[in-house]
Amino acid sequence: MINIVGLNKLQLKGFTACEHFQKLAFAPISAFREISQTHNPRANDDDVLLFLAYNADQLAGYFGILPDELTLPDGEKIHFGWLSTLFVSEDFRGLKIAPQLLLAAEKAYSQNLMVTEFTPSAERLYRKSAMFEDFAIKNGVRYYFQSNLAQILPSKREIFAKNKKILKHTDNLVNTFIPYFSPGKNHLYKISKSIDKNLDHFIAKEKKNPIGRSSEEFRWMLDFPWLSTEKEQPDYLFSSYSKDYDMFWVSVYQHQEIVSAMLCSARDGHLKVLYYFGNIGLNVEILPKIIKKYKIKMMTIFDGQINSAIQKNKIPKALYKRPMRRKYMIHSGFREKLGENFDFKFMDGDGDFSFT
Ligand SMILES: CC(C)(COP(=O)(O)OP(=O)(O)OC[C@H]1O[C@@H](n2cnc3c(N)ncnc32)[C@H](O)[C@@H]1OP(=O)(O)O)[C@@H](O)C(=O)NCCC(=O)NCCS
């Protein structure tokens, strides 16, 4: 008999430090994610943030939800949840525990659920449930700025995994001959970890997509990351650690005014532009400076407008490019509430992509 327990904000607070958590066979959340989730300005007090599935008193699986909010063109706000971390222990797979977790989430969020960045097994589950339908697909690009064979190839073939050292030497050798392809334009720009008054005004003026985050919410993202640079959460499937991780704003100034700004993350040499505002061309033209400063090896962009601007401006230049696809699925009941004319304009950082 499977028992599903939901933890809301208050119940999740301090969960990773309690005795019960320490005794679990595997961690259903990391300490950093707990702190972030319980500070989410868009989470209501009674939102369930983590579902736990127990078989008798044994933890069998879990499902994390990230609450969010959409604004419809008529100004109506709709509260919803992003499906985030779904896991069932191998000892309990095939027992329909995941579908039960999904049903619990459907009920708790009144069908207002959406998901992106899922594994093939999770996709099979969502499709089989007949709750979800396709919502959108973003065709992205991964840009490579340096040779990075030692990181990319070992997961593809065992022979590469065995010869990681040789790949690393090859990377180092190739990279000494690769200069940064373009220095970027010499715009006046500032990198910051915090949001000052100028940036605050700029974001408020420019925010436009249906998720429409405010400075307060961006502060939450910056203040409560999910990745620790110190230690990994033991026995946790999802990301909890990166040896080199940073999230930061890049603002471009003209005549002492901010004219463009973007929130970026750099994780072990991988750059993502999570949110951007203002002049896209200027944002793109400053990217080479960021690539150089953070020793970026690759960058992934799903946003069509940024990718077009990169193509048009021919900045930043990449050694190699690879197409990427990101699918979004939505609960059919939620899709109906959004209406036929809902304008899907999500930014790359929407969902839990900003945190991973
Ligand atoms: C995806 C996942 C949550 C499904 O959980 P579950 O409780 O086993 O789900 P179900 O019982 O409905 O079984 C799912 C499928 O796995 C198959 N399965 C059965 N026994 C299995 C086993 N021992 N090991 C693996 N899969 C098994 C089932 O037959 C079923 O196949 P079907 O869809 O063709 O019927 C689970 O496989 C998992 O935790 N995967 C790794 C983490 C992951 O990918 N999470 C998603 C992140 S976005």
Which helices and strands, and how do they pair?
Blueprint: E1 2-8, H1 9-12, H2 19-23, H3 31-39, E2 48-55, E3 58-71, E4 77-88, H4 97-108, E5 113-116, H5 120-129, E6 132-144, H6 149-152, H7 158-162, H8 164-176, E7 188-192, H9 197-206, H10 215-223, E8 245-254, E9 257-267, E10 270-278, H11 280-293, E11 298-301, H12 304-313, E12 320-331, H13 332-338
Parallel strand pairs: 4-5, 10-11
Antiparallel strand pairs: 1-2, 2-3, 3-4, 5-12, 6-11, 6-12, 7-8, 8-9, 9-10
The site of coenzyme A (COA) has 17 residues, from strand 4, helix 4 and helix 5.
Largest sheet properties: 12 strands, mixed
Distance between the termini: 34 Å
Residue runs with pLDDT of under 50 for 5 or more positions? none
Radius of gyration: 21 Å
Mean pLDDT across all residues, rounded?
A: 94
Oligomer description: single chain
* Total number of helices: 13
Structural class by sheet pairing and helices: alpha+beta
Bound compounds, each kind once, are: coenzyme A
Query: How much strand?
Result: 25-35%
In the CATH hierarchy, the third-tier topology of the largest domain is known as Aminopeptidase
**Per CATH, which architecture of the largest domain?**
3-Layer(aba) Sandwich
Helix and strand string, N-terminal first?
A: EHHHEEEHEHEHHHEHHEEEHEHEH
Q: Tell me the domain tally.
A: 2
Inertia-based shape: globular
Q: In CATH, what is the class of the largest domain? A: Alpha Beta
The strand line-up of the biggest sheet is 1-2-3-4-5-12-6-11-10-9-8-7
- The portion of residues assigned to helices is 25-40%
Strand tally is 12
